[in-house]
Amino acid sequence: LLPIISIVGRSDSGKTTLIERLVPELARRGYRVGTVKHDVHGFDIDHPGKDSYRHFQSGSAVTVISSPTKVAMVRKVSNELRLDEIVHRYLADVDLVLTEGYKQENKLKIELVRVEAGADVFPEILSPAADLIGLAVIGKTALTPPASHPDVPVISADDVTALADRIQQDVLASRSAGPVQLLVDGIAIPLKPIMEAMVANSVTGLVSALKGCAHPGKIELRIDTRLTPKG
Amino acid sequence: LLPIISIVGRSDSGKTTLIERLVPELARRGYRVGTVKHDVHGFDIDHPGKDSYRHFQSGSAVTVISSPTKVAMVRKVSNELRLDEIVHRYLADVDLVLTEGYKQENKLKIELVRVEAGADVFPEILSPAADLIGLAVIGKTALTPPASHPDVPVISADDVTALADRIQQDVLASRSAGPVQLLVDGIAIPLKPIMEAMVANSVTGLVSALKGCAHPGKIELRIDTRLTPKG
Question: Looking at the complex, does the CB of residue A105 fall below 8 Å from at least one CB of chain B?
Fold first, then answer.
């Protein structure tokens, strides 16, 4: 499964700035990085008057604009997408994903905390200890780790190298992506190697029997089990 | 396969305006419409200073912003995506797709032409006769159909009802979507019902053997046959 690290913290704690610094550092180390921003309030994208904006405003459910160097999409949703769905659909071809926000999802987290001058304890930590791989601290770092999270590494938010090292440890530790990526009802399903081989071989076998598909490279398949084949 | 109708024509012929009018008319008829704009020159989206813009500018390969009502994505590409890839990945859940441009792809087309006052023949038609399902004419429509495309319906570009009727004919005539959507190396592969059932049953069988997946609804699977399963 693709490594996902969430940068979480209170609003205005500096999450966007930290991501802006981590992305180029991780890219410099050879990783292709994707990012996801969780926006609980809604957002505007695209410029009024642009053609793609006009498409979307006219009532399309999804608008895509595609060029030789970039592709962009805006879609309406009736329920917020799960992080796994977003990653499977839109971030399949990156080496790791950094998210801004998503403190409710059970992904690995770096929590950004601001320590006021003169404070002698860390503020309350939002992330469950099991998810937290580091505290990125703005302000004084020389404090005792919080009792709730005694083993968490405490790193200055300015020390981008140390934070990227911490992320890289988890990326390197995670199982490298195999041939199969599977999402079932919005949840990414990890596969044991034997099952992964079985799925890869049986689907590749079926597909290569189709006209013009003798040697498939990338197979992308979507099945809605509630529909039945139609003539 | 999902019906795809391309609105083509010379630049500044009014393609965006026509799409802006067709989308609400088709939506009113109960269709969920997706749109794709082909931009050969590159485009800007997103606002400088916004968080998602900052993510992308910092060097991420893909940036997604997700809210309870909308999701947006910007990604870098090294080669322009094929229309089939775009539709499979981003427009899977719509009833029909309108594209602005994509005259080179072999999809059904409505070509927008401007007839100068006083002209007594149509200008040269860009679309192959086999793809063209209608000429949308700005200006005089009472002209003999061009010799190259003798049977093409000629409709005033202002007559959105007639154009939507023409599109609806093809949508209704196209095979309704079955349970399986398959993309192999960027090309959408149509499946005969027996093969569709075979793929649906075998993959659903494999997946429902996995822990927590006893009754899968939507299965999304991606296989890269060049990779081998890893431990």
Answer: no
